[in-house]
Give the backbone structure.
Amino acid sequence: MRRSRLRQAGLLPSWMLLTGIATGADVEPIRSIAAQILVIGHRGASALRPEHTLASYAKAIEDGADFIEPDLVMTRDGVLVARHENEISGTTNVADHPEFAARRTAKTIDGTPMHGWFTEDFTLAELKTLRARERLPELRPANARFDGQFEVPTFDELVEFVAAQSTLRGRVVGIYAEIKHSTYFHAIGLPLEDRLIAAIRAHAHTRTAPLFLQSFEVGNLQYLRARLGGEAGHVKLIQLLGEHDERPFDSLGAPTPTYAAMMRPDGLRAVARYADAIGPNKLAVIPRLDDDRLGAPTSLVADAHAAGLLVHPYTFRPENFFLPAGEQAPGGPATRSDAGAIAEMRAYLDAGIDGLFSDDPALARRAVAR
Amino acid sequence: MRRSRLRQAGLLPSWMLLTGIATGADVEPIRSIAAQILVIGHRGASALRPEHTLASYAKAIEDGADFIEPDLVMTRDGVLVARHENEISGTTNVADHPEFAARRTAKTIDGTPMHGWFTEDFTLAELKTLRARERLPELRPANARFDGQFEVPTFDELVEFVAAQSTLRGRVVGIYAEIKHSTYFHAIGLPLEDRLIAAIRAHAHTRTAPLFLQSFEVGNLQYLRARLGGEAGHVKLIQLLGEHDERPFDSLGAPTPTYAAMMRPDGLRAVARYADAIGPNKLAVIPRLDDDRLGAPTSLVADAHAAGLLVHPYTFRPENFFLPAGEQAPGGPATRSDAGAIAEMRAYLDAGIDGLFSDDPALARRAVAR
């Protein structure tokens, strides 16, 4: 096989290797090593509801997600809340609140300069006066009809919500939470991890139901492994992997590997010492060709499996804008292509992935159920 | 008709009048005056889940309740939370928390001496460390399997929960909240009504969806009518009515009527000046005979309708313990009699009621749907 020969020759990083242009014919589908391929409702069912609202999580559960995926940031008074970013102008109506006009500020978060309003400058009580808005109204105009209806949920609230839904449905729904900007929040005196550990211990659901914790950083996962590892086998840790030439933010300045290096076999074996799975960009599993069609899988899944790691790539979305060429539907970038989205996910399932982050869990459920 | 003749003669309070022993035959069923007969999930679906938990509210919504019914009390730091009583030893695990042992105390609430732990002695953060328990484990042993799983929800949390469920189901579920011990909470510096008004204004759901507010007191309903009446036609007020010889607690010492007097035609006309409906004990609508079988309806429904008031009696429960003779199933007091519970509710529907408080909304839905 060309892939293995090139790889043995060390000519290319293994995650960049392609088996060829075609995905079919001479390429044998490989198998997930998971007991069950997981459908992870990314920010809830964010293709259908404003992300990180109880309504979005509810829709994800209704639509068959095995896990709902909150991102966690912190308020000034140390409460974990669900937002994709600590900067909230894109997903709340904060700009419409004149009493908070003076809170607008500029910061550098993980090396990126940003302007806006930041959760760490608001108490929970203040944040609770805001209401969620659709982040992508151009691509998801139907979601904007829910603008102004929903609060920013706390982690405790969403745990109770998921627990109630699990009880109602007689089906345990897991939580797959991302710790955002760990080093940054430590630096400003709001460490997320200890709060999260306390919250996990405070709820029957998080003490017993499947709980996956993910981060683009490394040190915090190692910290959580040390503190939660022996306590409960139901807690799994996921190393998220970013752009090839980037490094985990907590490794900046240290002689630590890039994400590309972490995706090589020896890098994966190092990750496996503290994590249970990796969460790569889906393009690191199946890259796109020059014409934006799906290429052939890299060796990342096989290499991760060989290291004992599950692979949960991000993010599967149903709109043309996000789909590879060949899987789009007639229409504009906001047009959904359900069949195309399912076909894309099936190509990834054939590449052996063990779960998918999906903005539309009903489609992911269909892709997995074939 | 015997009923009207006796009533004209003023021999008996009209609500005590019976048309006879039999409910059928010579008695014409009267009709609800409501556009829709309401199924109110009493404390959620409290026959099936520990009362006043998100799981109980979720079950009520799943089972077809038009409204979920939270009772509201307050924490030391002024947060509205859902408990049937401010004394919480019966519905939480507070007694198992040694750090709160010293909070146990004796109080007199609305004239009733009580021992235990009281919400007004706990901050929300403290209350959130407790977990709900089934109040009636002997009658509802299956519910006790949920003990320890759920928090005491805040009003804000349950509003968001109901809003998310409404969005999910494409069906607007209303909130039918009871203000508990209004005078008592005022006396200790924790007035419920202003907090409630603020909370109503803070949520899209409570600003727009049907919202019913109920109390056994009078002054607070009049206060709410003055402040919410012009603002939103979606807010309805319900005068709850207690034992015949009791009075609203805020009327004690004043020359105000007993609940029995409030149920007479002139009393009802007075209630109609500030309220939209009454919530009487179901026995004031259909009393029980000496053998504990259902008697014939009183004139209360007709009198209330004549005054322009809807009638929502409490409480319909499916266990033998609560059912009239003739509607019980073989077994003990904890045995459910679904058919008997439905038959009981249908007798009340034939008496013209406009909604029911039910611990098992699925059964109430069936009774209403015939």
Summary: The longest strand of chain A covers residues 235-241. The first helix of chain A runs from residue 2 to 9. Chain A touches chain B at residues 49, 53-55, 57-59, 62, 128-129, 131, 146, 148-151, 153, 156-157, 160-161, 163-165, 167-168, 202-205 (CB under 8 Å). Residues 1-25 of chain A have pLDDT under 50 and may be disordered.
